[in-house]
Input
Amino acid sequence: MTLLKVLEYPEPILKQVSKEVVQFDSSLEIFLSDFIETLNSHKYCVGLAAPQVGNLQRIIAIDISRARKPHPNNGPLILINPKILESSNFKNVREGCLSIPDFTANVKRAMNIVVAYQNVQGEAKTLATKDFEAHAIQHEMDHLDGILFLDKISNPASELFRRVKY
Ligand SMILES: [Zn+2]
Output
């Protein structure tokens, strides 16, 4: 297994739109094992999107059980070709990003979502989730469309915060 380099803003790859995964083969499996190892190598990291490691495919990994504070969660998840089917209960929430290591921001996210996706075998699945897990999925899905939280804030003076190192 190999640790993958996480790209940081303003790397142009982060602004590109990723492609649907169509081949569920051994090269995907190899990428996923490196991708998960990379996520797990970052303390408190709860999600990663494939374009953040330079792979422009619609793949995200989520693991809210790794958060610094406990949240209800479904454990480690890999969502391939995810699509939001339903979203409701929007709130402003603080978020960070491995690709923007020095800042956090307040972003409006749905606290309840239903997401369709394919698992690592290519089988169609649906997940209903809420709160922090729903929030993290939306953040990672934005990466698949080249969107960073910096693109979602209108007033940096009140919505962007220098990250507190811990
Ligand atoms: Zn991010």
Observations:
- Residues 97-99, 139, 143 surround zinc ion (CB under 6 Å).
